[in-house]
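@channel sequence for tomorrow's demo:
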Amino acid sequence: MALETPGEQPARPLGPRDSHYLDVDALPWKPTQVPGIDMKVLVQDKDTGLLTALFRWEPGTELPLHEHVEIEQSYVLQGSIVDAEGECTAGNYVWRPQGNRHVARSPKGALVLSFFLKPNVFVEQFAGQKLE
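structure tokens (generated this afternoon):
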């Protein structure tokens, strides 16, 4: 695995088995290809697609129809995310199995901690693209 945290500035050089303590506030937000959704990558492996990230959803944002290639897990820190199956509100958690397809919305905005083994694949608007 080639694990990394983009923008990480460790206080000392780290060995391959050292823990990575992150100043999350100091990490940069970066836009995704979906307007209104920014992400802060906590750890990623570009080779496998593993990703743990914070996602900041602006009010009214919609994530187009996409498929989860592997399990996705999300814990909502603020606001809520909604789809045809339900709503996940602040302090609650949702996981989606491999093959789940949905359109996600955030009517009032949200801050979500999400975990992916492989990136989502968009079905329509961004067909073939992965959420990055």
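heads up for whoever presents: The mean pLDDT is 91.
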